[in-house]
Amino acid sequence: MKLAELNSGAKARIVSIRGKSGIKKRLQDMGILPGEEIVVQKVAPLGDPIEVIVRGYSLSLRKGEAEDIEVEVLE
Amino acid sequence: MKEIRIVVAGNPNTGKSTLINAISGAKLQVGNWPGVTVEKKEAELTFFDYKLKFIDLPGAYSLSPFSIEEKIARDFLFTGAYDVILCVVDSTNLERNLYFVIQLMELGKPLVLALNMFDEAKKLGYKIDVKLLEGLLGVRAVTTVATKGEGIDELKRALVEVAERKILPKRLSYGEDLDFILERLRVKLREMNPELGKEFHQIGVLLKILEGDRELIELLKIKVSEEEIRELTEHIEKVHGEDIETFLADVRYGLASGVVKQVLSKPEIRKITLTERLDRVFLNRYLGIPVFLLLMWILFKLAFDIANPYVDFVDETISGPVAKWSGALLEVVSAPSWLSSLILDGVITGVGIVLSFLPVIGMVMLLVTLLESSGYMARAAFLMDRIMRTFGVQGKSFIPMLLGFGCNVPSVYASRVLTEEKERRLTIFLVPFMSCGARLPVYVVFISAFFPERSGTVLFFLYVLGILVAISVGIIFHRLFYKGVSSPFIMELPPYRFPTLRDLWVHTWMKLRHFVIKAGTWILAINIVIWVLLNLPWKPENPQESLLGKIGSAISPIFKPLGFGDWASASSLLAGSLAKEVVVSTMAQIYEAERPKEENGEINFLEDLKDIVINFGAKTKEAVVNVFSTFGIATLEPEGPEEAEGLLGRLQGHFTPLSALSFMVFVLLYWPCFVYGIATKAELGSFKLYGQAILLHTAIAWIVSFLIYQLGRLLGF
Ligand SMILES: Nc1nc2c(ncn2[C@@H]2O[C@H](COP(=O)(O)OP(=O)(O)OP(=O)(O)O)[C@@H](O)[C@H]2O)c(=O)[nH]1
Ligand SMILES: [Mg+2]
User: Fold this and answer.
1) Residues enclosing ligand 1, CB less than 6 A?
2) Whole-number pLDDT of residue B348
3) Regarding beta strands B2-10 and B84-90, do their DSSP bridges make them parallel or antiparallel, or are they unpaired?
4) Which of A8, B507, B533, B705 could pair covalently with B548 via S-S, beta carbons 3.0-4.6 A apart?
């Protein structure tokens, strides 16, 4: 499943990240790496971007980038 | 005295600039969103017999930069001259911060950690074993609360000690395989670059080479063997099943989370934070955007209502007692009549009127400072991203735009957080549509003269119109000229924070200071030129026959369809293209010249002083009543048909409410000021964008004012 498909409140574990090298590198530097837990906190009023919690802090990113993050849903 | 150069680095928004301010008394810009500091800044102080020189770097998430300001940080860390690195760590966010600390450790320089935001960590119930952390990393760590100045002394001592004794951080193990590869690379590098010093053989550099950071390799001027590197990375990819970048991030984050597991204990039950509660409203699906607009309306109305009585006060004081005393003084020293006229009609009228708006401008600066420090900036970016994307920029572009409510100039620099060149240019181009403090005098004068009962609403309309025009122009320009795609929106949302009163005051004053200095220099100079133009050929019968009058009359037909085709408006707009404060200055000077001169009243210094004090009290009372009336608690008694005199009365003679509105809209949108122009040159390397902006903004201003005036007339206003 993709991160972009999760509803707010959903909890998941990151499986893999695809995407252009620069963006992928940035996401990784922000702590988005396989094996990490990630929680979808909020979706913006216009449906995009989304806010997630990863490694204990809030990060916002677009659905476009979230499409490239493969996750497995927890619970 | 021995100088110690301390470079301050760390993740964005961890409190680096706040900490330097606390240590050295500097007044560096701070704010609660990532990306406040966008260039290197310095501050220094003496500590015993040391001169500590701090270099504030923009924040960075890693040494692989994503935007201009991160590149500045990386380049300085690799090539700058410094004795010790002070890494400021957000204690509530240890894991991601340690990921950066680990990269700093790779540079092989003395390193000290400031575990900042320790108050917030405590409040969350976090316990950090500082001694263990120091032991694991081999660095000194000091807990600090930058906003309260806690831990500063210990930090200074640690910095001196670590710099003097050159205490280097531990060399962490990255696993047998990678350690072996790095060793091989080091030997190879030394062979190929025998002339380079040992700082080039640090793991930081080796890892950068392995990662293939071409930019940095070029910057350091080192020779590498592409083939050798390819061989090594292929080996890693084969053995570990990951590409090199993922592998390195994995290794470093692995180390970081290993350390965090040992040193940090979090409480079992997590409380719901204030930030989460607030975001339920501010980022609500349905309420988010309406709440933003409502907040803006309340804040602007409050700012206007509180400050407006003081505008009258300063104005009455300057045009009353101050002008009277100066006149008397000039008479005493028997100054020539041209000099008295220059000082009274030119300087006191022209500059005085600008100064009289400082209370209003100050209130708006206070609001901008509040906005900056609260954490709402990042939320605004989050809310607006979807809209901004339709024209090829992104949510982060909205931050410079909101900052533009204070002054457009810092916004130009703040756009560095944008990664795509086109997106940055377009943002800079749109910023002047955001109504800055210099335009307020025009609004205040016209609103007081024509819309006294609807002050908040009209002001709100102007600010929102600025945003709407920026968005519409953005959409059109995106189609025609700047066909860029917006860069990815990846942004940290910091928790909401309350600024300390001291910070609020310092940073409001820093913004206001800009206007005061400008009033005493540029605005003064322009006013003198205007005075000269208004009095040449020498002392004309009628101001319209002056040089200024002739120029104004020549261009005034352009403005006729907009509702203000008189020469005074035209001259004021022309002069105001340099700086928008000058629009009212020029009007005041012209109307002053048209006014029949009367004799000065009696001079009684003490009497006048008493009047000033009494007047101040009365205005304060008025401001307080205004605040309550904003919330409908009390209603303002209209003081009967106000007989406006001076500038306001003159305006009422020359404008109708509709043409006044059209005039304000024109001032809002036309010709960005020249200080903005200089900033764009500094950032983009040429005046090309400023030239385009002058032409296009003025054309857009004309069209919008035309529509407002003509539609208004059709509707019968
Ligand atoms: N509660 C608390 N807030 C702090 C502390 N230090 C800084 N802040 C706040 O954190 C925010 C960020 O501070 P800055 O000094 O601008 O951070 P910076 O690291 O310079 O940020 P960039 O320049 O964007 O990299 C501001 O709102 C500060 O008031 C602290 O120790 N405790
Ligand atoms: Mg800073």
Assistant:
1) B 12-18, 30-32, 34-37, 58-59, 116-117, 119-120, 145-147, 373, 497, 499, 503
2) 83
3) parallel
4) B533
Predicted confidence at residue B599, as pLDDT, reads 56
Residues recorded for chain A: 75
Assess if residue B261 is contained within a domain.
yes
Return d(Cα B634, Cα B627) in angstroms, integer.
Answer: 9
* Chain B interface mutation, best of A7, A36, A42, highest count of B Cβ atoms under 10 Å: A42
| Cβ(B703)–Cβ(B608) below 8 Å | no
From the list B448, B385, B437, the residue with the least C-alpha distance to B411 is B437
Question: Residue B233: how many CB atoms within 10 A of its CB?
Answer: 18
Q: HSE (CB half, 13 Å, CA atoms) of B473? A: 25
Closest by CA position to B30, among listed B69, B56, B10: B56
Pocket mutation for ligand 1, best pick of B18, B39, B128 (most atoms within 8 Å of C-beta): B18
Tens of pLDDT, residues B153-175: 999 999 999 999 999 999 999 99
- Residue holding tokens 């509707």? B715
Q: Is B553 in the same domain as B671?
A: yes
Q: Work out whether the CA dihedral B337, B340, B345, B346 comes out positive or negative.
A: positive
Name every residue whose Cβ is closer than 8 Å to that of residue B494 and which is 6 or more positions away in sequence: A58, B13, B32, B33, B34, B375, B378
How many residues does the structure list for chain B?
A: 717
What are the pLDDT digits (tens) for B323-348?
A: 788 888 888 888 788 888 888 888 88
| Overall domain count for chain B | 3
Average pLDDT over residues B255-283: 91
Candidate from B284, B395, B490 with C-beta closest to A27: B490
Count of C-beta atoms within a 10 Å radius of residue B538:
7
Read off the CATH number of the domain in which B147 is found.
3.40.50.300
Residues in B closer than 8 angstroms to A28, CB to CB, are 245-246, 249
For the stretch B585-630, pLDDT in tens is 899 888 877 776 665 566 677 777 888 888 888 888 888 877 777 6
| A-interface mutation test, from B260, B386, B390, B497, most A Cβ less than 10 A away | B386
- Return d(Cα B503, Cα A22) in angstroms, integer: 37
Ligand 1 atom closest to the Cα of residue B497 is: 27
Per-residue DSSP letter, B145? B
Q: How far is CA B554 from CA B529, B541, B654, in A?
A: 19, 19, 18
**Interatomic CA distance for residues B125 and B218, integer angstroms:** 46
Average of per-residue pLDDT across B400-405: 94
Q: Is B249 within 8 Å of A24 when comparing Cβ atoms?
A: no
CA pair distance B493, B380, nearest whole angstrom: 10
Residue % of chain A over a pLDDT of 90:
84
Domain extent at residue B332: 293-714
Residue B209 placed within a domain = yes
Residue given tokens 């509803």 in the structure block: A7
Least confident of B104-108, B354-358, B574-578: B354-358
Q: Which residue of A has its CA nearest to B250?
A: A33
Q: B382 vs A51: CB contact, 8 Å cut-off?
A: yes
pLDDT in tens, B225-256: 888 889 889 999 999 888 899 999 999 999 99
Based on the fold, state whether residues B45 and B186 are members of the same structural domain: no
Give the pLDDT band of residue B632 (cuts 50, 70, 90): low
Count how many domains chain A has. Answer: 1
Classified as helix, coil or strand, B213 is coil
For residue B138, give both structure tokens. Answer: 């081999």
| Confidence (pLDDT) at B642 | 45
The answer to whether position B274 is within a domain reads no
pLDDT at B643 over 50: no
Are B537 and B553 in contact by the 8 Å Cβ rule? The answer is no
Phi and psi, residue B172, nearest 5° = -75, 150
Question: Mean of the pLDDT values across residues B682-692?
Answer: 93
